[in-house]
Amino acid sequence: MHLPFSRRNCTWGVNVPLVSFYYFFTIESEKNDILQQILKQNTLETYRKITEEPSKYDHLEQMDVHTILKGINNEDKVVAEMVEKSIPQIERFVMALEERFGRGGRLFYIGAGTSGRLGILDASEIPPTYGMPHDRVIGLIAGGDTAIRKAVENAEDDISQAWKDICAFNPTPEDAVLGIAASGTTPYVIGGIKKARENGLLTAGLTNNPQSPLAQLAEMPIEVNVGPEFVTGSTRMKSGTSQKMVLNMISTALMIRIGRVQGNKMVNMQLNNNKLIDRGVRFLMEELHIDYQKAYELLLKYGSVHNALENALK
Predict the structure, then answer these.
(1) Cα–Cα separations (whole angstroms), residue 274 to 139, 231, 270, 283, 284
(2) How do beta strands 107-111 and 176-180 pair?
(3) Annotated catalytic residue 156
(4) N or C: which end of the chain has fewer CB within 10 A?
(5) Which controlled-vocabulary keywords does the entry list (predicted)?
(6) Beta-sheet strand order (sheet of 220-223)
(7) Marked catalytic residue, from 156, 223, 229, 287
């Protein structure tokens, strides 16, 4: 069920039940104390967080450096395997994104802490790598830009803030929101996904715990079960690594599908430093079988690898 979209829906409190877990949410659940009671009841008593289970390693403080590093590396080896198992879920989301991007839609990442920072990192790389406007893939973090470098106390516990953050960009039903939360219970993310779905935006949830509230709430769950962390509960480790991999896959596949890559080259990259200019020149040398000077002149004349190739091949 979706509400007709309007700017007035950029407020908190419209209640549209989406899954049985969230029948609890009403206008009163904007209050964080009530939300916390709900989450406590439904997560601590009935919801098992694999990411919070004890590490299979113990007495870490007694290990030498080599043993610590070997243990971390052994745990990291399972991440790619678990991401691979999630490819069907990732594929479904990318295909839906491709359709919306073709109609001018945007992608929002929302998260708190490590998850929020990873979303911002991925979003910030899209303009220089693929020449896209900064407002097509947008990363939002609980606590705002300050939280990128320094934790903002209690920011992730505000269930209404993510939707307010999204509303600053005048969202439309063509947009999509990917909530990122290792636990699958972060209130900032849960609230943002709930409101986005109510207002007709495409919603997905990237989490590291199966059957989490986030996975139940989002239309398109992406669940990467990497298991307990090397340091118990430290989800910046395997969980964060898996999230980075999935975000890379989503944004890269999307950019390829909408034509921002030619062959295997970043032909739309922004040429804003000497390294990238040199890379662009060498792309042209390889594609057109010309020397460095000629390629440099073409790049200077047309301003991008894409335009240079297009005009040179006419």
Answers:
(1) 27, 41, 11, 14, 15
(2) parallel
(3) yes
(4) C
(5) Carbohydrate metabolism, Lyase
(6) 137-141, 107-111, 176-180, 202-207, 220-223
(7) 156
**Domains of the chain by residue range:** 20-257, 274-312
286 is catalytic: no
Measuring CA to CA, which residue among 189, 188, 226, 229 is closest to residue 205?
189
**Distance, CA of 111 to CA of 178 (rounded, Å):** 9
pLDDT in tens, the chain (314 residues): 444 445 446 754 433 333 334 433 433 344 455 445 545 545 445 678 999 999 999 999 999 999 999 999 999 999 999 999 999 999 999 999 999 999 999 999 999 999 999 999 999 999 999 999 999 999 999 999 999 999 888 899 999 999 999 999 999 999 999 999 999 999 999 999 999 999 999 999 999 999 999 999 999 999 999 999 999 999 999 999 999 999 999 999 999 999 999 999 999 999 999 999 999 999 999 999 999 999 999 999 999 999 999 998 87
| Rounded CA separation 199/1 (Å) | 9
Are the C-beta atoms of 113 and 151 separated by less than 8 Å? yes
As assigned by CATH, the class of the 20-257 domain is alpha beta
Report if pTM > 0.70: yes
Given the residues 98, 125, 174, 297, select the one marked as catalytic. 125
Region class of 154: left (phi > 0), else alpha (psi between -120 and 50), else beta: left
**Cβ partners under 8 Å of residue 219, min gap 6:** 197, 202, 203, 204
Q: Any bridge partners for residue 222, and if so which? A: 206
- Residue-by-residue DSSP string for 63-111: S-HHHHHHHHHHHHHHHHHHHHHTHHHHHHHHHHHHHHHHTT--EEEEE
